[in-house]
C-alpha cells in the first residue's frame, strides 16, 4: 500500500533519514521500533509532508506523495496521529472530532462523531469539555478517535503509549490491534513500548540512526536477542538467559 | 573526495564572481556620476557610505552575529548625535566664559556662541584634534550607556518581543530628542562647533578622510572581535542559546555586551554625522533613516558578513543619491501630476527589502561558515597530541 | 464626559482594532505585521477621500475602508507572505518582509496625497476628520458610534471564530498547524482569511484614530509602536488579549497625558507616547509574556482558597 523508496529527509539542512526503504503491506500492522533519535518520527513527518524530503520516493497506492502539502495528503485518506499535540486543546471534544472530519459534509461528520463516541464511550462523558482538560489517556483516545474520523485507508500512529500509565497503554495497544482486525485499516505504527508493539504487529522495522537495521516479521525480531538488548532494551527470553547476557564492554565497542 | 573539493572551489569562485560583479556595478555607477556631476557628489556619497557603514556594521554585530533583532538602532544614533551636539560645545563654552546651561541650546545664544568656539578651534590644531577626540569619546560613552539602559528591560525577551520593545524604546528616545528643548533645542536645530574648520578650503576632503579612516578602524575592530572567543560565543548564542547556556555562556551578559558595543559604535556614527553636517536637527533623526535604511543595507549585503554589509551600503547609497539628483530628469512624468519623485526613495527601500528576502535570502555576500582555527593549525594541534 | 474621555474612547477603539489586527496575523502566520501602519493610514485616507469628494458623514465610507484594507492584506499575503511561509522563513524574515511592503505602501500614500493636493487643490497632509462629525448629547457623535462599531465588528468576529466551521478551523490552525493540516484543513486559506480580516481591521482602526487625532500620511508610522505595544501587552497569545491591550494602551495615553499635564504643565504633551510605552516596559519587566502571562487562574485560585480558608 505504502512504499518508501531510498528516502533521504530531514529538517532544514539537517539530514536525519538515509536511503530508507520501507513497505507497508495492505491491511497489516507495521511497527517501526528503534532507540531515541533513530528518526522514527521523522519518517512519519516525511510521509505527511512536514519534514523536508531531499530525495527519494513515497508511493501510496501508486500515487507519488513526496512534495505534496499536508492537507492534500489528508484528502487522499491518510490520517496521522502525532505523538505530541495530537488534540486541539482549546477546542471542545466535539469540535475536535468535527475538525478531524473537516473534509466530510456536515451530516456525515456528525454521524461519524456519534459513532466515535460509541467506540470510545469515555469521550461521550466529556463531549463539551475542552480537550485540554482531559487526562493523558483520554487525550490519546480522543486522538485515535480523531484519526479514525477521517475514514482512513492508512493510519500513521506516532508513539501512542507515551506518558500513559502501563494499564492504559496496554488498553490503547489492544485498541490498535482491534482496529486492524475489525476495521481492516492499514496501520504504520511507531512505538517506544517495543515489546508489546512487536507482539501485536505483523511486520517490523528496526530503525537505528536513520537507517534500517532489521526488517521482517515482527515477532521474529523479538528472537534476535542482540538487536533487542542493544537497541530496544528488551531482555532476552528467560530460557536463553545465560547464553545471551547483556553485551560486555568489549562487545559494545566493536 | 576530489569531486567534493571541486564543488567547494566552484562555489567559492561563484561567490567571488558575485562580489566582483557588485564592485563592477558600483564602479560603473560611480564613473557615470563622476562624468555627469563631478567630484562633490562622489564625496557626498563617500561620506554617506562611511557613516552608514559604521551604523550598519554596528547593527550587523547585534543582529547578524548575536541574533538580536535591533529595530531601535535610531536610539543609539540619536543619543550619539545629541551627546556631540550638547556636551563638547558646552565644555568649550564653559572654559571660554559663555553661558553653558540650558540657555546654550536656545537659538539666540547658540548662534552667537558656536562661531566663536569654532574660531578658537580653527586657531589651534591641537585644540581641534582634542575637540574631535572628546566628541567621539562622549558619543561612544553615551551610546554605550544607552545600550546598557535599553538592554535592561528588553534583553530577556524572545525574538519578536525583543524586536518590538527595541523599536518602542528607539521611538521613545526619538520623542525625547524632539521635545527636550534644554539639551539640543528640541525641534529647533542647534549648531555644533566645527573642529574641521582649521582646514578651511579642504574641510570637505579632510572630513571624508577622517570618517573613512574611522569606518575602516571599526571594520577592522569588528572583524577582530567576531573572530575572537567573544565573537564565537555571540554566534553560538545566535544559533542555539540553550546549547550556549549549557556550555556555560551567560547569555544575558554576552548579549548585553554586544548591545553595548553595538550602541557605542552606532553613537560614534551619529556623532560623526553631526560633526559633518554642523548642526543637530532632531527631526532629521527618524526611524526610517537610521533604523530601516541600515536594515535594508544589511539585508542586501548579507546578514552576518561585514564585507557584504559594506558592499550593500555602498550600492544603496549610490542608488539613493541618484534618485535625489536625477529625480526631475528621470521621473519628470510624476511631477506632471504633482507627485514628488523623492518618495521613490521609500519605494526603493521597500523594493530592495522585499526583493532581497524573496530572491536573495542570504544577501549579496552570504555569511561564510569558517572554522575558528585555520585548518593547518588544527592539524598541528592534532599532530602535537599524537 | 471629561474632554479626554471622548477622544480617548475613539482613539482607544482604533488602537484596539489595530492591535487586534497585529495579534490576529501574528498568531496565525507568525508574522509581525509592520504594514499595519500603512494599512491604518490607508483606512484613514479612504474615509477622507470619500468625505471630501462625495460628502456625507465619514461613517458612510467605513465599508469601503474595510474592503480596501482587506485588499491590501490580500496582496501582502499572495505577493509576499505565502512564499515565505512555504519556505518556513524565520520570524525576523517575515517581519522584515512586511516592513518592505509597508515602505512601498508608505511611498504610495505619499504620492497619493501629492496627487490629491495638485489635482483637487486639497490639503490632505494635515487633516482633522472630526469636523465632518455631528454632535450627539453635546459630544462628538464619534465617541458613541465608533466604540459601538468596534464592538459590533469584534462580536461578529467572535461569532465567526466560534460558530462557523471555518472559524473553528481557523482556531484549530492557530493552535496546532501540523495537526490541522493533517486533518485536511487548508492552511493557505486560513492564512489568507487572517490577512484579509487583519487588513480590514487595521484600516478601520486607522479611520477611527484619524477621528481623534490629526491625520497625516505618516500617521500610522508614528502610532505603530503603540499598536505593537498593545499587541505585546495583550501577550500576543489570543486575539482578545491584543484587542484589550490596544484599548488599555489608548486609554492610558489619553488619561495619563490629561492628568499629568494638569499636574506638571503642558510640556508633558510632547512626551505623550512615553506613557503607554512606559506601561508596556513595566508590564514586560514583571510579566515577560504580557498580560496573558499574568497567572489569572492561579490568582483567582488563591483568592478562592483564601475565602475557603476564612470560612473554615
Describe the structure.
The complex is a heterotrimer of chains A (254), B (386) and C (312). Chain A has 254 residues and is of the alpha/beta class. Chain A has helices at residues 40-47, 70-75, 93-100, 106-119, 121-125, 136-149, 166-183, 194-200, 218-221, 225-232, 249-253, and strands at 2-11, 14-24, 29-33, 52-60, 63-64, 78-81, 154-158, 186-190, 203-208, 211-217. The relative contact order of chain A is 0.17. By secondary structure, chain B is mainly alpha-helical. Chain B has a domain at 40-308. Chain B has 17 helices and two strands. Chain B has helices at residues 2-37, 39-65, 73-96, 107-123, 125-154, 159-179, 181-184, 203-227, 229-239, 241-246, 251-277, 287-301, 306-325, 327-330, 332-336, 344-359, 375-385; strands spanning 190-191, 279-280. In chain B, strands 1-2 form a two-stranded antiparallel sheet. In chain B, helix 2 packs antiparallel against helix 11 and helix 3 runs antiparallel to helix 5. The radius of gyration of chain B is 23 Å and the shape is globular. The two termini of chain B are 25 Å apart. The relative contact order of chain B is 0.16. Chain C has helices at 3-29, 36-54, 62-86, 91-120, 142-163, 165-175, 177-182, 187-212, 219-233, 239-264, 274-286, 296-311; strands at 135-136, 139-140. In chain C, a hairpin with a 2-residue loop joins strand 1 and strand 2 (139-140).
Spell out the blueprint of helices and strands.
The complex is a heterotrimer of chains A (254), B (386) and C (312).
Chain A: E1 2-11, E2 14-24, E3 29-33, H1 40-47, E4 52-60, E5 63-64, H2 70-75, E6 78-81, H3 93-100, H4 106-119, H5 121-125, H6 136-149, E7 154-158, H7 166-183, E8 186-190, H8 194-200, E9 203-208, E10 211-217, H9 218-221, H10 225-232, H11 249-253
Parallel strand pairs in A: 3-8, 3-9, 6-7, 7-8
Antiparallel strand pairs in A: 1-2, 1-4, 4-5, 9-10
Chain B: H1 2-37, H2 39-65, H3 73-96, H4 107-123, H5 125-154, H6 159-179, H7 181-184, E1 190-191, H8 203-227, H9 229-239, H10 241-246, H11 251-277, E2 279-280, H12 287-301, H13 306-325, H14 327-330, H15 332-336, H16 344-359, H17 375-385
Antiparallel strand pairs in B: 1-2
Chain C: H1 3-29, H2 36-54, H3 62-86, H4 91-120, E1 135-136, E2 139-140, H5 142-163, H6 165-175, H7 177-182, H8 187-212, H9 219-233, H10 239-264, H11 274-286, H12 296-311
Antiparallel strand pairs in C: 1-2
